[in-house]
Amino acid sequence: VLAELIEKFVSHLSESRTDCYFSMGSYKAMDADVKKENLSSVQKLGVEMTVRYGKYLNLLKEDAENGLCFVLMNCEEFLKQQQRTVVSSLCCLQEQSAGYDWFASSIFLIMSGDKEKTLTFLQRFSRLLVSAFLWLPRLHLSMHLPVTTLEYGIHPVYFCSAHHVEMLLKAELPLVCSAFHMSGFTPCQICLQWITQCFWNYMDWSEICHYIAICIFLGPDYQIYMCISVFRHLQQDILKHTEA
């Protein structure tokens, strides 16, 4: 039901000029016979984890690995069309891909391992503003960002969403905010980890689905509210650890 709902919603918005923030360009999917060997070691590990998790949730069949490789390779090629070359000594800017694509993997699971549906959805979704915040590889080396922003190698999610989380945390949860300052960590670092991984390994699958759906339906600012609500939920544990 969720797959059908987000599919129809994104399809409807992607056909409206006023709702499209990015141009989609033209892209045809590569041959379905994409070999796993073409992926980096990090991606291969991510594929294994995703397939194992998908089978545990009874969402994927035996041949799911090839389907996920197909989606990841095509996403990489599709996003490369909208990347620019940046000369930098930063390691993160010398790689064409931005690590493992947790968002694409999440959509693949939501679509029950249907590679064509997943790829079509992601291509349409890439036109919407919310894709910049939910799908982090979307803006890796992107031509949609100013060159100065690219050269710093800092993703907009860090200085937009995560920054606003810190601002809200001061007002809403001052004790949690103080605990972070005392620890030498910033809430920004934790939030970026959560968001990059689509909350995998932090929340249950149903909650991950709710996070993705809420941000798609209600807007990217709900990413910030979600992080604040998680900090509120963890407040007692955070304070307890600070005291200890």
TrEMBL record:
Location of the BROMI C-terminal Rab TBC-like domain: 1-243
InterPro entries: BROMI_C, Rab-GAP_TBC_sf
Alphabetical list of Pfam families matching this protein: BROMI_C
Name by which UniProt lists this protein: BROMI protein
Naturally occurring in which organism (per UniProt): Edolisoma coerulescens
Gene designation: Tbc1d32
